[in-house]
Specification:
This protein is an all-alpha fold and 383 residues long. Among the domains are: 1-50, no CATH class; 53-195, no CATH class. The chain has helices spanning 30-50, 54-74, 113-129, 134-141, 156-170, 178-193, 197-214, 218-234, 238-258, 265-281, 285-302, 308-323, 329-350, 355-382, and strands spanning 18-19, 26-27. Strands 1-2 form a two-stranded antiparallel sheet. It is globular and about 75 Å long.
């Protein structure tokens, strides 16, 4: 359930929600349904039904808008190029233009969102038809996020457009089907990349409500709670975020030790990086420094020294070292050196336009300014 608010008054819907018998638009009650009808829903109802019902109609509309935005954002970069999948400049059916927001260099990586989506759908359909195991399905699902050439995640408006394309493809599945649930997560990740954290939070809350109703494995619930904690951080709700983040991380660690094969390594370190961010958000730099310093060797062993999460933890450690209450001038210089190494590695591995790269470079610039100010202050004090 992505349409989580009443169509008339925008209040958060309960489950199950009252809905229009024809088009399945949802309401908090009969009064709102009647009011919405009188305000013009009667003119749209048949059109929405023809478009596949409220959820499908909404997904199609949002996908079209997101693809248009992505194409416009990539227009300068894609001039004179063709799609590496269909080899055309304009998509044969949708007439959409090209996008590219990954780590590809030169003339590689240009594609239509519709072509990328079709590739991913084919891979998932084959996995379903051949009854492949969960590990294979999970690997194939990554194509909704990842460029098939450079094997780095798409980002920004392209990732958001692919998120809506993914939701559009699987919205018609039953509520508990793994593709529908995975599509909700993919869409939430895309919304995160464009800063739409209120929308993202509503999706994760809808996921949690489903999980609590149906009794899914605890690991799934913890992942959703971790995502909610991340939304709280992005929305400035730092105390709520830190309290929830601590609980999720501690419980994930306990379960991963008890059932080591039930957890992907990324799951633990996504939560660890989120917790480090939550500590920094509340100014707990000393605690963050100690926490990140312990996690970095673990991430290097499990994921590799150049994995995005390892680099993010190194960045968090450097930021905490720089801002620690007892930071010396040597500590600050070391922090700047660490940030320089992270930024250089991110540019090489993730690409210069990746949001993580841009964020690391902004952190580096701020750190250099702080170091220069401290060096100037210390020099003046010595005179």
């Amino acid at each position: 359930m992505i349409l989580t608010q009443c169509a008339a008054c925008a209040v958060t819907l309960q489950h199950p929600a009252k809905q229009c018998s024809r088009c399945k638009t949802r309401y908090c009650g009969a009064a709102c349904q009647k009011k919405h009808w009188e305000e013009g829903h009667d003119q749209l109802c048949r059109r929405i039904k023809k478009g596949g019902g409220a959820e499908q109609f909404h997904a199609d509309k949002k996908c079209t808008a997101a693809v248009t935005e992505a194409v416009e954002a990539c227009a300068e970069d894609t001039k004179g190029q063709t799609c590496y999948i269909c080899t055309q400049a304009l998509h044969w059916k949708t007439k959409e233009g090209l996008v590219r927001m990954c780590a590809c260099r030169g003339t590689a990586g240009f594609a239509h969102v519709s072509c990328l989506a079709e590739q991913a759908k084919i891979l998932i359909a084959e996995a379903e038809e051949n009854n492949l195991d969960e590990k294979v399905k999970t690997k194939r699902w990554e194509r909704w996020d990842m460029c098939g050439l450079c094997e780095q995640n798409h980002h920004s408006v392209v990732r958001c457009a692919l998120g809506w394309a993914c939701w559009k493809a699987y919205v018609g599945q039953t509520e508990g089907h793994w593709t529908r649930r995975s599509a909700m997560t993919t869409l939430a990740n895309g919304l995160h990349d464009v800063g739409k954290h209120d929308e993202r939070l509503r999706i994760h809350e809808a996921e949690l409500a489903y999980e609590q109703r149906t009794g899914v494995p605890e690991n799934d619930v913890l992942t959703t709670l971790g995502n909610i904690a991340g939304c709280y951080t992005a929305l400035g709700r730092h105390k709520e975020s830190l309290a929830l983040g601590r609980k999720v991380y501690d419980r994930k660690c306990a379960l991963s030790h008890a059932f080591p094969h039930a957890f992907r390594p990324e799951s633990i370190f996504i939560t660890a990086f989120g917790l480090a961010n939550q500590m920094c958000g509340l100014g707990l730099f000393d605690e963050c420094k100690e926490f990140a310093q312990k996690r970095i060797p673990e991430a290097e062993r499990a994921l590799g020294p150049e994995h995005g999460l390892t680099l993010c933890l190194r960045s968090s450690h450097a930021a905490a070292l720089l801002n620690s209450s007892d930071a010396t001038l040597d500590d600050m210089r070391l922090a700047v050196k660490m940030m320089e190494d992270v930024a250089q590695t991110m540019r090489r591995v993730l690409g210069k336009s990746n949001p993580r790269t841009l964020e690391s470079e902004q952190m580096l610039a701020n750190a250099r300014m702080k170091l220069a100010a401290e060096e100037a202050r210390t020099g003046l004090a010595a005179l």
